Amino acid sequence: MLFNSYPFIFVFLPITLLVFFGLVRFRLTRVATASLFIASLAFYAYWDIHYLPLMLISIGFNYFIGRSIEETPLGSKKATRLLWTGIGLNLVLLCYYKYANFFLSSFDAIAGTDWTLPNIILPLGISFYTFTQTAYLVDAYRGKTTKQDWLSYGLFVTFFPHLIAGPILHHQDMIPQFQRMRNFVFSHKNVARGLVLFALGIAKKVLIADSVSPWVAPVFNNSGSVTFIEAWVGAISYTMQLYFDFSGYCDMAIGLGWMINIDLPINFDSPYKSKSIVEFWRRWHITLSNFLRDYLYIPLGGNRKGQVRRYVNLMTTMLLGGLWHGAGWTYIIWGGLHGLYLCLNHGWTKLGVSLPKLLAWVMTFFAVIVGWVLFRAATLSDAMNILQAMVGMKGIVLPGEAQGKLAILTNFGIQLKSWGSLAYIPEVNGNKGASIFVLVGLTLCTALLPNTQEIVEKFKPTWWWAVGVGVLTSVCLLSLNRVSEFLYFQF
Fold it and tell me: Where are the transmembrane segments (predicted)?
């Protein structure tokens, strides 16, 4: 069930809210909590009920291991064995469903064998609920958890706004909210704020990300024949699509949480405003960055064992972060590239030399775009073809007439071709040039304008807000005939 679908908006969400607050009205708070848990399971089962038992088994296993660790003396050998048993089985489950075919095909390519496995379908959300529970086990081992009842724990893992594509939750942030009595009181303010943020999130997805989406595939599917300008259009289109798609999902998830008086963590903070890669990772997919820092980078030694070890830890963390996103070499190389970016960033910082802000932003944004090309490309060969075209290694072709005002550019080896001959530049109302202005406009919006969180902070229940949000929501609802999944569902 998609957030941007009629069944969710007009059936699932109203029934879930009515049942939850209806039970609260009769002071049945425990039953109300159970209703959210059941609703979350129904939300997950709507996708494919065959994978519901797998998730329930994972929850039951991790709850049992977590409780066992909590009842064991801190740092004891038994606690350590329990921790590694839990982490090991979580990773086995994740690796089988997400990486088995990738590892096997890579081995076949190296060894010249032909081993095969049955087609394995990746269960939705398995990366997110596996990471969430692994972090819980580590915190239990560190003595940072308290004994939880099974219902609170189950709801913490399955809470439907975050279940499929994050954000990655932390027990200390979530479980107390499910047990706090004032969170069971219906709040007109929270519902209104939640509806506004949900509307802004669905607008990002439906009106922007889905509109730009058709501009991406033609370039990446024809990487060997794209020209300079076409490669840039495809790369920036995907850069915008990914941002508005995933940040839109996270906005909708946070808005849904607010409607039930639950605060989910912010996952985006205008990442395309960043002036360094370090800053980018503090703004992009914040919950994943925090997870990788707290449960991988710091346990590896962080920056406590010298600069060389620090760079090794950064590379290791980002390579595994890339692998988490998908079973493919392009994801691993993307992670390694960002690891290299971070090493260079930290090395430059030690020199104490600062760049002009505009230059720092341009360099950071260009580095991010290069990374997204690797992230989106089906193969490394496709990625290299597009990157080569972007830097002019295949010649520079721009739209224009050889006899027109831009004819002087031909003296510098630049080719001019008519708009019609540039097959992979999309049209907007029959005008290919308009699509370039749209991409420039979107880039400026992400770099200069307030983000949705900042907009909602200024929310006041006035007629102007009601009319504006109402019109925006109506336009989105009328556009749901072209419903599409969120990009991060595949991870």
Answer: 6-24, 53-70, 82-100, 120-138, 150-170, 190-207, 311-334, 354-375, 433-450, 462-480
